[in-house]
Each structure stands twice: as structure tokens, then as C-alpha cells.
Amino acid sequence: MTESLTLRDVRPYDGGEPVDVLVRDGVIAEITPAGTVAPAGEVVDAGGRWIGPGFWDAHVHFTQHVIRRRRLDLTETRTADDVLDIVRRARAEGAPPSDGMLMGYGFRDGLWPVPASLAALEATVSDIPVVLVSGDLHCGWMNRAAAARLGVELDETGLLREGPWIGILHDFDEAAQLPADAYADAASAAAARGVVGIVEYEKTDNIAEWSARTAGGLTSLRTDIAVWPDLLEQVIAAGVRTGDIVDEAGLVTFGRLKVVVDGSLNTRTAWCWDPYPGMDPGHPHACGMESVPIPELRRLLERARGAGIEAAVHAIGDRANTEVLDTFQALDMKGVIEHAQLVRDDDFARFAALGLIASVQPEHAMDDRDVADHHWAGRTGRAFAFGSLHRSGATLRLGSDAPVAPLDPWVSLSAATARSRGDRDAWHPEQRLPLDVALAASVRNSFAVGQPADLVIGDRDPYASDRDELRSMPVAATLLGGRFTHREL
């Protein structure tokens, strides 16, 4: 049976007169001048609203995004004392621990005047385990009770960073405690912002977990899923390759091997060519950290390539980006570089020359501009350099890194094109992206006959919207394969 839908009176984002759209079997079958289509199926009058391809978020940690709503909110803190005040108040008010632990999320210690310390956290709460997750997910601040439970060693800071931390971040029992509908609610919230698909980089068995979600009725998103090195051999043994559909609903596609080569800016573990301010140049981590040695990266990429699996490699510092570019070049292998936050001038053109995608998160530039000005002083002209990447010919993909930034494409579009928010001037305005470029980097299909009917209908013209109007764009409807996943029409 043919399923049809008729959308009347919509205006394409990329210009032109109002049109009618006929959708048949999940595909755009006709686009005609408004008032001329022969209607079929349900007829929906869009009232002259604006239509374009639905959005993809190219970098998400979906379980962490869902769990964030259950943790103490530390995102507005500016000092260690701010964080400790929230923890102290939550404990005094009897905040329910998660699986026996008091969990928080969102602190950023890159500019704290007084650094984190184990003693300060112990003096605040010592009777139950406390684990506080940084806003960039690259470190955790915990007390001794938490360290004992998790079987880790702490130094005087109480901070656990990078490899040892990431190894336990995804093992907390919070995910098992999430209500059955928590994931569906988060997916529906994304659809309400025009999202039709995400690239999932959670460190877990994504094939099994996402197949179960779609089988259970979570059908409002398409998902490209990744595998981390610890499960790579399991995926290879199963014969799964990049591009394979892995669920019965046809919504989950196997994507890439994810490898994390360095750390992050806020934790001062991004691997750079130059030392961080105040660091002894002789310190082994003065320039950040090499999370996965480059010979091991090469081995992993060769292993994946031989099994038909593409790669996405996390590289934030300029040394990390150089080394990852060198590795892709040596292997003559295409793939994705995730983040590309600091890039040497000579390396921008290599993305296009090597056929690599730069997957970037524009709102990170807004969150991190002050810490970048401090820790990457004198180098910020090539930090979060979306404009330089575009001008060099690189293919861009925009995302959020949710929960690090909101899973909202309009926020990303505003940050990419304005490089400012609130009452602040544009930060390195030469790195702004044109709106058409940012839109193209946020979608996977076009508004054309024969294309999937993955569509978003907005109340305003993006090209006539200012920075804040773009950020808060009202979304009237989102369609996935011709069916509504969000509707206010």
C-alpha cells in the first residue's frame, strides 16, 4: 500500500516561491508551485512556513546526554567553591544518590583561580561516594569513597583524567536505572528541534543497545553508531561493515571505529606542539597527552580498514591533528577527524587533500573562548577555525558533542555563523561560516525530488534571522521518512 502525504504552501530555505510537496513512501515525489499539486493522503497546510532537509547532529554521546538530566547541574559554576556549594547543599537536602553515588555534571576547571583538591571535596562530603563529571567528559573529580568503590587511585587533586577516567565513565550503573522512556523522551526533544539523525559515539555496545531501542519503539531518529577499540574485534567477528543496517527498523547504521588520540582543552590534555602556560616544558604532559600512541592508532586503523570499517579519530590539539593527518595519509585512508579544535596553518589544506571530514562543534567555541584565550594564547586565530577549514576546501560536519553542548542544530548554526552569544562581540569573526555552508554541513540530503522526506519546517526564514532568532528558531514540524516525529501544525 502506497503511503502519501501532501504539504501545501511551504517556502524552501534556499529561496524561491512557495511550493507544494507530495511525499510518497518516505520519498519526495513531487515539488510543484503552491496550489498546483494533485493531493494524496493527508493534506497539511504549512501556511507559508519554511522547509528544508532535516538536521543531523554529527557527534553525540546519547546516554550521557540522557543521564545529564539526572545529575547535579554544575554547568553555571565558575570556581571550585561554586561546585562544592552545590554538592554540600544537595547532600544537606538529601539529594537521592544514583546507585549509591552522588553524581554531578558540567564543571569546567580550566580557569579556576583555586584548583580542585581532594581535601576540599572530602571536607564537603566524605560519607558517601561523590563523582563529578567535567563538562567536556574528559575528567572526573571524586572523593575517596568513590575511588574505593571504583577501584582507582587518586592524587591530591582528586581528579581522574583521560584514559583511566574514560575507562570508567561509561560503566556507571546510572544507565541501567534510567526509565524505559528516558531515551525516547530525549529523542523526541531532539526531533522537536528539527533533528532527524545523530552520530552516536557512546563507548558501549551500540549495535545491541540501539537495535533494542528501535525494536522498543524509539523510531524518531536515524542513528549512525560507532565502535570503540575494545569492541572492534567483536564487530569484525560479526562481519559488520561501515554502512550496514543493523536493526530491523532500518534506522540504525553501523558507522566507524572511534579512536581518541588526545584529551581536551579544559583539562589541558589536548596534545599540542607548545606547552600550556605555567607548565614546566620538561614535564611529560606539558603539551598535553597522547591518549593512544600513534603506532597503536595506525594498527587500529589498518585493522578496521581490512574489515571494511572506516574511522573517526578524536584530535583536539594541533600536535594531535598533525599526527592524525599524517597517519591517514600514510595509510591512504579516508575518514573523519573529530573536533579539530587547534590546527597548524600548514595543516588546514591537508583535510581536503586527503579527503577527510572535519567534524566540529561550533558551540564549543562559545563555551571555551576564554579558556582558549588563556591556555592557547597567541594561537586562537587558528582555534575552532571553521572558516579556515571551509576556505581550504575541507568537508565540514556540525554537531554538539551532547551533553557537552545542547543537542540543538539551531544553536550550532548560530554559533558557527555569528561566533558570539549574549552580550559579547564575535570571537575571531574571520572564522565565521556563511549560513548556506553551515546548513549544508548540518544535513545529509537535499530538498529535491527523489530525496528522503527527512524534513524540518520552521516558523522563520533562517536567512532573514539574526543571531538570537536563529538560535531560538521555532520548529513547527519534523518529518522522518515522510512521517511526523514532531508536529505543531
TrEMBL record:
Q: Which Gene3D superfamilies match?
A: 3.10.310.70, Metal-dependent hydrolases, Urease, subunit C, domain 1
The record's listing under InterPro entries reads:
Amidohydro_3 (IPR013108), Metal-dep_hydrolase_composite (IPR011059), Metal_Hydrolase (IPR032466)
Q: Which residues form a coiled coil?
A: none
**Name this protein carries in UniProt:** Amidohydrolase family protein
Query: What organism, scientifically named, is this protein from?
Result: Microbacterium galbinum
- Please give the Pfam families that the UniProt record associates with this protein: Amidohydro_3 (PF07969)
Could you tell me which residue ranges the Amidohydrolase domain spans? 42-485
